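Need residues for this backbone.
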């Protein structure tokens, strides 16, 4: 934030951004720094966001180790361990947790405890506020993904992609998926009636999406109607894009249409990015209209 709060005293226990001058870029960078600093002060959120995908991957790897490997559908090359097969879905789920879940709950709390109302009385623009939130997610999601991959590779013995093309696919799916998730999280924050109800509103949505989008269950084994519902939402496409980056080409035979469909993934995530941008701009208010 770039100006001293004048409407009332700061909320106890809540740090406020420093009132330093600068252009738009400088204000955005300072807001990002403030958001990241404020985020790491909340140990419960930090542990859940960083630890949940790692814990779930470790559980899947250990629980199903006795089942051996998943054969390559093409019949060429070695199969995959259960952990290796589900790692792409865990990476995609981490993006959903970092973007949609965390931002929706966090912003709803800020509306409820009066922080947004106070900031709305300052020169801070919604653009700077959005930049701070998205920048914070970019920093934390990068750290989370890197930590997940390090643990998967060195702790669980899961091989990572070994070609430049695979890493390029990973990069654009990760960036596009995270940006869409951030904007959808901002838009979803308008749904809870209060900060107290935010978790009960947001958590079921993200949990159901994880189960029907190929994160915890093999997507080709789900009923067709469930696959069709999942295909409406971005997590299914994020998980599919990550599988395209991490899994051997033979495993595309397990996808709908027996192909990775990278073009469709890009279109679907791009559409959701635009939808999130429009909804976040239309629904965002410094205070609730019914407040």
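Answer:
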């Amino acid at each position: 934030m770039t100006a001293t709060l004048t409407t009332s005293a700061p909320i106890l226990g809540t740090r406020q951004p420093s009132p330093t001058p600068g252009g738009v870029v400088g204000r955005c960078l300072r807001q990002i720094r403030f958001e990241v600093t404020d985020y790491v002060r909340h140990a419960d959120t930090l542990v859940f966001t960083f630890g949940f995908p790692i814990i779930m991957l470790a559980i899947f790897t250990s629980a199903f180790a006795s089942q051996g490997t998943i054969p390559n559908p093409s019949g060429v090359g070695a199969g995959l361990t259960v952990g290796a097969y589900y790692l792409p879905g865990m990476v995609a789920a981490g993006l959903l947790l970092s973007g949609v879940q965390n931002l929706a709950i966090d912003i709803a709390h800020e509306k409820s405890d009066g922080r947004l109302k106070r900031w709305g009385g300052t020169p801070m623009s919604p653009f700077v506020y959005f930049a701070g939130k998205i920048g914070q997610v970019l920093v934390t999601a990068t750290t989370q993904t890197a930590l997940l991959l390090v643990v998967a590779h060195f702790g669980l013995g899961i091989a990572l992609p070994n070609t430049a093309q695979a890493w390029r696919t990973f990069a654009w799916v990760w960036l596009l998926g995270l940006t869409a998730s951030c904007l959808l999280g901002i838009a979803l924050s308008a749904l809870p009636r209060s900060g107290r109800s935010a978790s009960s509103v947001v958590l079921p949505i993200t949990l159901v999406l994880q189960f029907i989008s190929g994160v915890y269950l093999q997507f080709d084994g789900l009923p067709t109607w469930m696959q069709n519902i999942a295909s409406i939402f971005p997590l299914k496409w994020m998980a599919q894009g990550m599988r395209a980056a991490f899994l051997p080409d033979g495993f595309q035979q397990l996808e709908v249409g027996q192909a990775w469909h990278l073009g469709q993934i890009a279109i679907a995530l791009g559409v959701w990015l635009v939808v999130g941008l429009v909804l976040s701009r239309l629904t965002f208010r410094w205070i609730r209209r019914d407040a």
